[in-house]
Amino acid sequence: ALERSLRGAGFHRLFPIQAAVIPLLSRGAEAAGDEDSPYACDVCVAAPTGQGKTLAYAVPLVQALLHRTAPQPRALVLLPTRDLAVQVFRVFELLRQGLGPGVAQIRARCLVGQRPFAEEQRNLERLPPDVVVCTPGRLADHVLGRAGRLGLGALRWFVVDEADRLLTQAYHRWLDVLDRAGAARARGPRLQKLLLSATMTWNPQKLAMLRLHRPIYFFSSQTGRHATPAELQQQYALCTLAAKPLAVLHILGCMLRGELDGQSCKETGKALVFCSSVDTSHRLARLLQICSACGEAPCHAGPSKDAAPREALLEPRQVAEFSSNLSQRDRTILLRRFRKGQVRCLVCSDVAARGIDIPEVSVVVNYSVPSHLQTYIHRVGRTARAGRSGHTFTLVRAAEMAHFRSMMEESADCWARLRRLGLPRAARLSKRAWFEEALEELRRQLEAQDG
Predict the structure, then answer these.
(1) Using CB atoms within 10 A of its CB, is residue 278 exposed (0-12), middle (13-18) or buried (19+)?
(2) Which reaction does it catalyse (predicted)?
């Protein structure tokens, strides 16, 4: 039934990390209670984004839950943000809905604060779920809070997705829930812990907080260092701060002309542009919309005359800001429009860098150089997902080059695969009349907004 559900959802082959992890977790479920079994162990998975880590644990969990007698919370999946929790919940729903009649109906519940706390409590009591997908704060409220009633006595699996982020100081309250869950299982099969991330921490002090039992580690690279998908083409461009918006317009123009991945990219390609702050995201999105509205951009050939040529550009409505400036509801609506192709360029803060699966992202632009390799890995992981090709471009100022190279050399393969992009003259000259007019219009809009 589960295989039929997977095929119906369009999954026909396993990625390497899935082929390695799914059998281990399935045998671990079968060996529950046998402490001498080699499969009675905790599991840590480090693999690039887009390689199917969610299905690697969702499939064996659903398979094991098909044989449960009565619904109780048996699997708890923890994620750092609402967006990621909702995305993982939908994967469980997809698997559940494809099981068909005559099969135990697995229930999943998403606890992220989208509904009032009292309503979530009533739903948990009325229809107990088999799988609980939640964020740290909401989990603590339902387990540790004075009014919390989420029972952990039957819990078999505790999944920590995006484990490196959840082990930062800001999220540590959920560790008290993990301790309570372990104590509740003292008389039954051991609670199995699953840790997953594209940038898994190997800090022994942080891992010690989890009290892992005979952990087995899965790496995507032979060295154990952070890696990127083989299908990802990585480039960087030396660029002044003032000319960075022009470089973004040039890269988007290449996408629209089909110069990256041909006709499909030209017609349906999408781009994510990552900035280091919400303020920068807001300003850049506005500027790109202004340039698109006037139909101006640096051309590929880069003529010497000051007036910019007209060429294929995104429409202003196809460019949008995606940051914490938006409410959860607005971000959800915007992601839906992006998936449908109504918006083709999102200018983001790092709120979109982790885990969110957006199909057919052709291009990722690092407008701001990431401070850490982990941030780079998560940003560029929005493209080249599930075996598709993808392109990433990092705009580097001369003063940042030493840091950028040092950071790339920390990875398993990034620096060796990185190629320099030569920008045409028109994408490097910011002292041009049309661009200065666009900057002046941006200033007027921002002043009106502040006023």
Answers:
(1) middle
(2) ATP + H2O = ADP + phosphate + H(+)
Query: Are the C-beta atoms of residues 218 and 43 closer than 8 Å to each other?
Result: yes
Pick 1-219's CATH classification: 3.40.30.10, 3.10.310.10, 3.40.50.300, 3.60.15.10: 3.40.50.300
Strand-by-strand arrangement of the 361-366 sheet: 319-322, 345-348, 270-274, 361-366, 390-396, 232-238, 419-420
| Adjacency order of strands within the sheet including 192-197 | 108-111, 131-134, 75-78, 157-161, 192-197, 43-46, 216-219
What predicted TM-score, i.e. pTM, was given to this entire model? 0.79
**Could you identify the residue written with the tokens 């022994």?**
204
Q: Apex CA 240: angle with CA 379 and CA 288, to 5°?
A: 60
- Domain parsing of the chain, residue ranges: 1-219, 232-295+311-448
Q: How many CB atoms lie within 10 A of CB 231?
A: 14
Average pLDDT, the chain: 87
Asked if 227 and 197 count as a contact pair (C-beta separation under 8 A), the reply is no
CATH C-level class of 232-295+311-448: alpha beta
> What pLDDT was estimated at residue 310?
44
Closest to 354 in 3D by CA, of 280, 293, 272: 272
User: In this structure, what are the phi and psi dihedrals at residue 2, rounded to the nearest 5 degrees?
Assistant: -70, -40
Same fold, 1-219 and 232-295+311-448: yes
